[in-house]
Amino acid sequence: MILITKRLFSLFTLLAAANFALAQNPLIRDQFTADPSARVFDGKLYVYPSHDIYCEENDGREDWFCMKDYHVFSSEDMMHWTDHGKIIDQDEVPWVDATTNSMWAPDCIEKDGKYYFYFPTKNKDKSTNGDRSSIGVAIADTPIGPFEPEAVPIAGVQGIDPNVFIDEEGQAYLYWSENKIYGAKLSDDMLELASEPRIFTELPQKGLIEGPFVFEREGVYYMTYPHVANETERLEYATSNHPLGPFEHQGVLMDESPTGCWTNHHSIVNYQNQWYLFYHHNDYSPDFDKNRAIRADSLFFDDNGAIQKVIPTLRGVGITAAKDQIQIDRYSHLSETGAEIEFIDPDNTFEGWKVVLSANDAWVQYNAVDFGNGNLQNVSIKAAAAAEGETLEIRLNDINGPIVSSIQLNKNASFITYEADLLQKLSGIQDLILVYKGKQSVAIDWLTFE
Ligand code: FUB
After folding, report:
1. Which of 32, 33, 35, 261 to mutate to test the pocket of ligand 1 (most atoms within 8 A of CB)?
2. Which of 50, 108, 126, 181 has the fewest CB atoms within 10 Å distance of its CB?
3. Closest ligand 1 atom to 264 CA
4. CA nearest ligand 1 atom 8, residue
């Protein structure tokens, strides 16, 4: 698997220079992404992730993180993401030791019309932080750059995972981690520490803690962070009435990855009056968890301000236009028997997934599809069926809901595109269910309405 992924990497590097329409979880479908810092600038959502790649050798440590640069992505509907390309490359930052491929989790923030991009990596001048990471800043006039890196990293900071928070008075704070979480005020120009760093010793001391992300809601400051309390990282949070604490531990906001991805790294953002958690998982690289993929799910608060635990989904967030290719394998619900999600091509995971229905009445549900004002007439569905004359029903709402189309399947081991009429006018936002009526199996890649 890793060998094939490596072969494909060069192709995806080339493709990454272009823009892509993307959707669902994972959010970005043509390259590995991790450590998403989501920000809203001028009413538009931006995500600044790390950029994982696969390196055969990485600074003497094989099979480890390998990260040479950063891209920025933006979206207005959380379904279609634009890749604005590379904003920082380790080869272009004067102080960076570009042999280390250590451009780990970044953050970006706006102050007085300037955009400050913070990133950790290794300094070629070993006299300050030795082989540990330093944190640098690059400045731009727009959220997508061009970013101009500072000549030297921030003095007095050793560590990774920078996060910046600006309070209501305009005071900026820098947080970072190195086994513990640190925080300090930033100077007005955002380039220097303006107070002695505080070590948040009130946060868990046992088990790795990293990746701080601080935000404010209704006068409460939330310190959120990945913590290895058991086997792998889970996301926890603590609260305070001051950005520099002390913080009181509150609980877990996302459990450990069910499939063992060792890291999780996140950010929390309010966009158009809904809170979202951005995080990562190794969807495209199930056998190597240093090649990750960013995701987003909705996040909710209790009346008392407690964060409700976020259960990761494949459906993710946002409303899907009926005219888009609906990747139904990113499902909302799946029948308990006779329904599986598989890679289309296990040797090229970026091809995505298919849903395989293999029992009579097995089903897959995909919520929130927008049919607009009701002028769509037919459905196209890319599917491969194991037997002749079986049927796929498209229903609304649930397995007993009205049938809106019925597709007669032909025996065909490869994917073909079927077309069928809609039996009734569909308008507005609908939840779709595909129900298999047969004795063999059918694999479905996507469907779309015209
Ligand atoms: O992406 C490299 C490192 O893995 C990040 O800096 C950590 O937070 C973890 O996600």
Report:
1. 35
2. 126
3. 10
4. 211
SS3 content of the chain, % helix, strand, coil (to 5): 5, 45, 50
Distance from C-alpha of 207 to C-alpha of 176, rounded to nearest angstrom: 17
- Number of other CB atoms surrounding residue 234 within 10 Å: 20
Ligand 1 mean position to 443 CA, how many Å? 36
Of 343, 376, 342, give the one whose Cα is nearest residue 447.
Answer: 376
Question: What is the C-alpha to C-alpha distance for residues 405 and 58, in angstroms, rounded to an integer?
Answer: 53
What's the 400 CA to ligand 1 centre distance in angstroms? 45
Among residues 136, 144, 132, 142, which one has the least CA distance to residue 120? 136
Q: Where does ligand 1 bind, in terms of residues with CB under 6 Å? A: 34-35, 50, 65, 104-105, 160-161, 210-211, 263, 265
Residue 265 C-alpha to ligand 1 middle, in angstroms?
7
User: Can you say whether the dihedral through the CA atoms of 254, 256, 260, 263 is positive or negative?
Assistant: positive
Task: Kindly report, residue by residue over 360-393, the tens digit of the pLDDT.
Answer: 999 999 999 999 999 999 999 999 999 999 999 9
Supply the pTM of this predicted model.
0.93
pLDDT category of residue 60 using cuts at 50, 70 and 90: low
Give the model confidence (pLDDT) of 91-150 as tens digits.
Answer: 999 999 999 999 999 999 999 999 999 999 999 999 989 999 999 999 999 999 999 999
**What pLDDT is attached to residue 23?**
55
| DSSP sequence for 340-390 | EEEES-TT-GGG-EEEEE-STT-EEEEEEEE-TTS---EEEEEEEESSTT-
Identity of the amino acid at 278: F
